[in-house]
TrEMBL record, chains A, B:
One of its GO terms (cellular component) is cytoplasm. It is found in: Cytoplasm. It holds the Pfam family NucS_N. GO terms for molecular function: DNA binding; single-stranded DNA endodeoxyribonuclease activity. Keywords: Cytoplasm, DNA-binding, Endonuclease, Hydrolase, Nuclease. Its main location: cytoplasm. This is Endonuclease NucS. Residues 2-97 form the Endonuclease NucS N-terminal PH-like domain. Cleaves both 3' and 5' ssDNA extremities of branched DNA structures. Its EC number is 3.1.-.-. It comes from Nocardioides marinus.
Amino acid sequence: MRLVVARCQVDYAGRLTAHLPMATRVLMIKADGSVLVHSDGGSYKPLNWMSPPCALREGSTEDGRVEWTVTGKTDDTLRILIEEVLHDSSHDLGVDPGLQKDGVEKHLQELLAEHPATLADGLTLVRREFPTAIGPVDLMCRDAEGLSVAVEIKRRGEIDGVEQLTRYLELLNRDPLLTGRGAVRGIFAAQAIKPQARVLAEDRGITCAVVDYDALRGMDDDAEHRLF
Amino acid sequence: MRLVVARCQVDYAGRLTAHLPMATRVLMIKADGSVLVHSDGGSYKPLNWMSPPCALREGSTEDGRVEWTVTGKTDDTLRILIEEVLHDSSHDLGVDPGLQKDGVEKHLQELLAEHPATLADGLTLVRREFPTAIGPVDLMCRDAEGLSVAVEIKRRGEIDGVEQLTRYLELLNRDPLLTGRGAVRGIFAAQAIKPQARVLAEDRGITCAVVDYDALRGMDDDAEHRLF
DNA sequence: TAGTCCATATCGCAA
DNA sequence: TTGCGATGTGGACTA
């Protein structure tokens, strides 16, 4: 890992072209050759970068200024014209042991599988990841009247999720084993549902359910076993 | 901008919980208080981070080790336990003049709005960003016969774009003002269209148009004004 | 390898 | 501010 602070001008040409005027920035050069150009603001996304695999070549322009050329796998190139180097240091970091995560969509599905009644009164689980020809339905349930209910779970409820559930319902409603007592209903469950997605869902007779993740976790006796 | 290289352990708790075991990493602390934890690989995304606005507090644990606590706007917290500092430097970067981009979807839409006939002979523009209940249609046009044509523009033509255009067409074809002379047609325009998207589009009677960005830019008399 | 879906997404624009 | 779509999306998983 090499860290450089320099007054520089950056030009990228690849899927798009982008230009950064001359200013002081941080250049991070990773062991795999990838380069990140950061300013003193924004968020974690660099102003400009080159993803690995790529190669950095240090050269100079006709008028003797330092110029880095980073070449990517395709035609991507990142040109960094350096006017003044304010800091330059290299560090051996070794291999990173990696990140452990908890609390993504899979976990939400586990919690709802344990507590399906929070989605609709009297709802009981038939099975998780119920298989269909076009992919698994997150939860297949049965309501108080014994009718089949397909549940699609998303962390954020957007229009794509409604389309997905619609495709599932279309398929499920061709199966006489499921539709014996009546058509399969759909429930679209998410921590937040966008207005457009809600309109589309309701237009298609799909019920929307906003899920309170913290409340669900509170209901789960084993919640503490998942913490680090 | 402060750059620290240190052996550290990182724990994040917010929308999810995440844990990084003790290892040597780069910590980037920006002027707005945001913190990035980078390893010597991966891509531009840090292993862990805290987005602005946030506040960093340097403290120490009961056993005297250095611990940073970064607190975000909501309940987000990032705890960095530091075992050994290998490098620590601060730099004044000033305000960045910002990034200039060229070649994104918006620009493509401008060019096609100026030259709709490249999509189909005799096509003329009615208006850009034509409003519907579920969002704006990129270009609403009229063909040589006076029939309405909805154009959806994507940089990359994938299946989502076809779904989007299908929804627009469904809605537009309920409007007697547009369908007076016949049903509204759809054109799916992109720099490259994936095979699956093409199949779906043609199955729905949507015309696919592959757009040559460079050729379009060449037709545009004012193109040079957009260059740097 | 190509398709699909998630993300602590981030970012920019507009209502 | 919130909603919404684009992103040089990236990354993981699957068939």
